[in-house]
Amino acid sequence: GMEKINFSGGEPFLTDRGEFVGQLVQFCKQELKLPSVSIVSNGSLIRERWFKKYGEYLDILAISCDSFDEDVNVLIGRGQGKKNHVENLHKLRQWCREYAVAFKINSVINRFNVEEDMNEQIKALNPVRWKVFQCLLIEGENSGEDALREAEKFVISDEDFERFLDRHKDVSCLVPESNQKMRDSYLILDEYMRFLNCRNGRKEPSKSVLDVGVEAAIKFSGFDEKMFLQRGGKYVWSKADMKLDW
């Protein structure tokens, strides 16, 4: 019954310069015959040769872009050294068009970009979807004593998030995700094939599907199917069904 898989990280293109995730994408499309295979990336390591080799097997490429101001990207931690993140975004958008991959943008709205007006840039890039997330704290990951990074300084209120959404209400491809929608509506598997339950504000792992099977493990995933549908999780996600001008 599986229809869609999404590879995200970390950065999926780190391993073997993208070869590993490319082989996974090809396997999911050719062997598993999944209707939708997608990747979330910051785009810094993607080269045109990857599209030439694996583009036909990928339905959607989502690029993380939190700001169209390069100084803000550096402040947030999206800086790419000598590369200009925004210029790279336009290059990736063109490759997606040339190699028939649906282009998507993911933005995390936080204290440093909440006042930004992105209308003009998003409309120019014309993604199939613009996922707009409210910055979410996860204990042990970006919050708390054992956290890999501290995100408290990035947090915004629900009211701030709503103001950002209202400023961009004319962008037809915008898909908003508040903290509440995000926390319960994803099926997340880690590298040990364990479902991660985020309902209690931290990622609590199930037993691995390799040990107990999917049916047993998924009961501890915290997945809310109603919220998944409410946030627009089900959409036209196979490029074969999209009426796109490549």
UniProtKB/TrEMBL annotation:
Top-rank taxon, per record: Eukaryota
Cofactor(s) the protein requires to work: [4Fe-4S] cluster
Keyword 4Fe-4S part of the UniProt annotation: yes
Keywords: 4Fe-4S, Antiviral defense, Iron, Iron-sulfur, Metal-binding, S-adenosyl-L-methionine
Name of the protein described by the UniProt record: Radical S-adenosyl methionine domain-containing protein 2
Pfam families cross-referenced by the UniProt entry: Radical_SAM
GO biological process: defense response to virus; positive regulation of immune response
PROSITE patterns tied to this protein: RADICAL_SAM (PS51918)
Gene Ontology terms: cellular component: endoplasmic reticulum membrane; lipid droplet; mitochondrion
